[in-house]
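Lecture 7 notes. Example A: sequence first, then its structure tokens.
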Amino acid sequence: MLVHSNFIKKTKSAETTTAVTNENVVEEIATVVSSTINTATRIYDRTLLAVFKENRKVLRDLNRESSELYERMHERKYRMMSTLRMLRESDLDTAQYYHTYPYIREALKNAAGGDPVISSKSLAHDYDGMAAAIEEARRSIDRDVIEIFLLHEVRSGGFSQRQGAWEALNDAKAKGLVKAIGISTHNVDVTEQISDVDECDVVFPLINYAGLGIRNGSEAGTAEEMLSAIEKCKSKGKGIYAMKAFGGGNLTVTYQKALDFVCSKPCIDSVMIGFGSRSDIDDIVSYMDGEMASEYNPDVSNKRMLVEESNCEGCGTCMTMCESEALFFNERGLAEIDGSKCLTCGYCAPVCPTRAIIMY
């Protein structure tokens, strides 16, 4: 499950909020409660022992620790209340392919009166497949209306081949089952093509400063080409929310540069960010609040490279860049990484034509 919001970096003259999920909040609350109970129990046990031994110095120290614990809990209370309020403005990006609908449904049960925007998508090619995908989302999330529904991962030539699915999206919008329709794509040519389709409300393109994963027809595309296509869509009144700001994790080592690039573009309305841990949430909140130190970048020393087989075409281009010979063809004819040889240098990722290599 991924979250997205209007990531305009906070300044003194502009206020914004960053969306988080209920699951993250529950995890944070559980961690805080557990930590508080453990600390309070330790103080209580030591207090009993100190009273028994009539050790006044230890009692004074314990009194100080108790006061500090109270202050920390007081601070955390208001920090968590702010987080809970942000849930009311959370926007969620998902897809039929992700199999996350049951988790979203449970999270929305405790959304504190919020009404987040749900954006989903399907790989369906024909009318019946897309109609079924929309109904699955409505039923599984327990939601009458899905705010945004997209053709998922439209490749070069793919839009014309999926006209049945596109017709189903238009019909669903006319019936009020979805509010806005559009496409997600990694391709410059597809982004340019969809700018002339009046029925398209939303475009979800891949964009990052290094151009990782961008395609233009059968060739690699550039960030400049994609931005030009996005600007064309924006000029036609389409909403834009961007994906892969970190290039599948490969640009995390230049965290702020990656976010500064996408957040500074007037043609991009929103940025979709994927979270894998609570520290990821802490980082984006710190960045958006303008509190992140200018020299900060997340620790990626424990990150690993992975080939997503669903995107790999078995071309072998990545292997030409790996001097460690960590990449090989597996029994399915697709690229795979030998973790014992991989140096996590990341040289393989930029040359992959389908952005199949990610850092996680």
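Example B, a different protein, same format:
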Amino acid sequence: MVGVTKFLCVGGDFPNILTKRDRPHREDGHLLIDYLVLFAYNINYDAEKGRVYCFANPQCQYILDHYDEIIKPLRERGMKVIISVLGNHDMAGLAQLSDWGAREWAKEVAEACRVYKLDGVNLDDEYSAAPDLSNPWFTSHSGAAAARLAYELKVAMKELSETRIWLRLIGETGYVENAKLADLIGESRELSRILSASVATAKKKIRS
């Protein structure tokens, strides 16, 4: 369908399907699906360590750990690969993080996308329990808290842009080899693109 962006959310035993040679293609040679959404990362709360963190189920982690065999070929054919994050029946939730909690968690998500070379994040606000409001990680569940998360992702993206400016200024001094500098700038640009996709997803969740 022309002009329609198609998403496919996958989990379970889907790695076996992803690695088959007879993947469906359009006439232009690209895959039929525009965005592959890996299901799922969970936003969890570790009571022992007192922090919110992300946890991938075994099937999702398998796909992430086999980037070259599974994710890379799909991206090379034009498919975007993003990860879905949702609650996991505890206090951690996408629309109930405090200002500070949203800022800290956004850093972890961005780092995960960088490490696993993903194209973005799908934020799925469900399956979260009522938060402990005395815990500094949390606040009352609200659209405002979801908006704060989108804002913190924007802030992280802005910081990446500023980082690229400073990297270029450092390059002009000659203190860093050009090859190494190019790698650093490329990495910051990749993180900025990932965070942009995450912000767009968060805004859609807020409007809905």
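Note on Example B: The mean pLDDT is 76. The domain at 7-207 is CATH 3.20.20.80 (TIM Barrel).
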